[in-house]
Every structure is written in C-alpha cells, then in structure tokens.
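User: Show me a protein chain along with its predicted structure.
Assistant: Here is one chain, sequence first, then structure tokens.
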Amino acid sequence: MTLETTGPHGIAWRVSANSGPATVAKWIVEARWAHPLWHLYLIAVCHLRDVPGCPPPIVHAPGSTHEILVHAIDPAWKLNLQQMPSLLFPANFAGQFREACDGLAEQRAWAAVLEIIEGKLSPDTDYMREWIKRFGSACVKPEYL
C-alpha cells in the first residue's frame, strides 16, 4: 500500500515495498526545489535492535534506538513505488536518535518529510546542519560538521 501526501513544495509517498527487517517506515519524496539535478529522495527510519539472521546494528550514539537516512535518488531512475530506487552515494544524511517506540520514531521522521514538502527543510547536503539539529551528528564525519 502506498500513501501519498502533497504539500505546496513537493509530494511524499509512504512506501512499504522492498523494506528491510529493521525498517520502521520509508518515503520517497519529490522536492524539485531542493537541487537542480535531482529531485527525488529516499527518507527511511530504521530501528537499531538486533534482528535474527542479520549483523548487529552499528550504534554511533550510545543509547540511540533509531536511525534516519536521507538519500538522493539517481535522476535516471523512473518513479516506481513498487521498486527500490537507485540511490546516490554517499547518503545526504544519517542520524541516530532515541525514541520510546517505533511509532514515535516514525512520527519524528514524518515531521521532517512534511517539512520537506512544505519547503521548510531541504534534503540536500548543503542543509545538513538543519538535519543535525533534528537528529544529531553521531553519524556525520567530523570534517562535515
């Protein structure tokens, strides 16, 4: 199932296709205003609990329970909500944070998605400081701080 939310400066689709076992929620977000060359982004939030059969999560910020990832999507990828997009690397942002449950972590990430489609938060790397304010800097290399 895919849910679409439209804002004055973008569209967000909550997608469940191709989600990993630790994925709490993920969205594909269209933000044409954020960058001249790519306009689609993947925003995903994952829990940092052990998952049987998977390597243990790497926790950069002790006490963190969740991680958010922001990736630009390859502009050659054609929007298909049933398919995992081709991502550009490195990620635009990764942050670890503490929440009491998956539902609250999802709400926190959803608030950032809404800010993007409202034109208040750019997913582009030039705005990393804004993401750090919301989700911390534990996953950001010191040279990018």
